[in-house]
Design goal:
alpha+beta, 4-stranded mixed beta sheet, Glutaredoxin
């Protein structure tokens, strides 16, 4: 099994952190954008979108980060990162969809805005704050949803958000970033040229 990734982005980091946190027997291959690896015919056969992450498991190719997370959690049930009951699985799916449909676009809007406007992100942080009340993780125990959601809040843009009214979120981010997988995937950017 091999995952094609580029650690620096949240969708890639969540998958790679999950693999590394649970020491899964998955080869991690960092793609070369300089060599246009994701545009090669071989890679496009794996992911016709020409993006990362992507997973190859024998003759099965899978792309989309949240689908990769749930596939890995299903393939490796010892992670206990994906509930097997209908309600538990639906709860995880809810947070995965929330991340891709609400949090990701709100964070993306911040990235391209001329002026910092957190008005779309602040209500989302309040929802997270409420969800995390009395819990260490989104659903009480560590699931793929935690990996998916936190990966957006620990980006450079995410670290600049105002978390003053969200102590539960701050504590959860601290727990998540201390996990072995997130420590192993922390990328140190070179200093900007003067």
């Amino acid at each position: 099994m091999r995952v094609y990734t580029f650690t620096i982005t949240p969708n890639n980091r969540k998958v790679e952190a999950f693999v590394r946190h649970f020491d899964l027997p998955v080869e991690v291959h960092h793609v070369s954008f300089k060599d246009k690896e994701t545009q090669s015919p071989g890679y496009l056969a794996i992911n016709p979108m020409g993006r990362v992450p992507a997973l190859v498991d024998g003759d099965f190719n899978l792309w989309e980060s949240n689908a990769i997370l749930t596939y890995l959690a299903t393939k490796f049930p010892a992670t206990r990162a994906l509930p097997t009951d209908a309600r538990g699985r639906a709860d995880v799916d809810r947070w995965l969809h929330w991340q891709s449909c609400h949090l990701m676009p709100a964070m993306g809007a911040l990235k391209v805005a001329d002026e910092k406007d957190e008005s779309k992100v602040t209500p989302l942080l309040k929802i997270l704050e409420q969800q995390l009340a009395g819990k260490d993780y989104l659903l009480g125990t560590l699931t793929v949803a935690d990996f998916a959601v936190v990966s957006y809040l620990i980006t450079k843009m995410g670290r600049q958000l105002d978390y003053s009214g969200c102590p539960n979120v701050v504590a959860w981010i601290g727990r998540m970033t201390a996990l072995k997988g997130f420590v192993a995937t922390q990328v140190k950017m070179p200093p900007a040229a003067a």
